[in-house]
């Protein structure tokens, strides 16, 4: 078996070489990766070598949105078998800390997460992973859709954090992949009106196709004025920031109504940012943040399988593994048109 692996040796570079095929421990499975989504964090690492306080040091393998087929099982694995198609939840928590024991394992301080320095990613032919973090795909869910479960879980967790429910009005800043899975999730949760804001008209047109009630082009309109003209001067019940841009993060408190909720989803390259806390205090806003997700893979797979959420709609660009550098360059250079890129291995 060949194990082709894509290494980023420094920002902006990518080289494919073969490494040894990993063998599963007693409670692990070996998976032939078939699809790997290109996440915004992957792009930040590729372009800048860091995301917030996470800094790449040395050669690095990207990729954490993956799905594939089990090719070998560890001696103690009974819940999965060779040939099962699975989506891999990319974080491996310790299982012992207070956060793990309370169900919030995404906050585990010792979690090992694909493509989060110093842990290497899954952009390779074969990986090993704990069996209990691999989820079987229903027969009517494709392996490509399986790789999209990971970003969908971010959108579902964001809506859970924001307590989206029927009748709520929602603003989503950013119409990239995470903005759009938040849109799909908000609609599934019953939001009555969803406004999506972005700089690129093509992305906004895409958002309309996915169910946005209104869109605002931030290049051509004043975002705050445009949103309030659509929702009234009070603003939105819930504002999601998914772009990770200092300007849109700043705008969240201006867009939320009194007593409303701001959910910070996007991660900025910078660690320190300006924010209008006078608005927060004056409106008694609730600020929530999103760090990955927890306990959502089964829900996401069920929503895809029963047709509640059609996640495959977000994929706009597909690439083959041999073209991995071109894939990342395309996502950066053609940001206006690329909503979601995915790599087939």
From TrEMBL:
Its cofactor is Zn(2+). The keyword NAD applies. Pfam families: ADH_N (PF08240), ADH_zinc_N (PF00107). SUPFAM superfamilies: GroES-like (SSF50129), NAD(P)-binding Rossmann-fold domains (SSF51735). Keywords: Metal-binding, NAD, Oxidoreductase, Zinc. Residues 12-339 form the Enoyl reductase (ER) domain. InterPro entries: ADH-like_C, ADH-like_N, ADH_Zn_CS, ER, GroES-like_sf, NAD(P)-bd_dom_sf, SDH-like. Belongs to the zinc-containing alcohol dehydrogenase family. One of its GO terms (molecular function) is oxidoreductase activity, acting on the CH-OH group of donors, NAD or NADP as acceptor. This is L-iditol 2-dehydrogenase. It comes from the Bacteria.
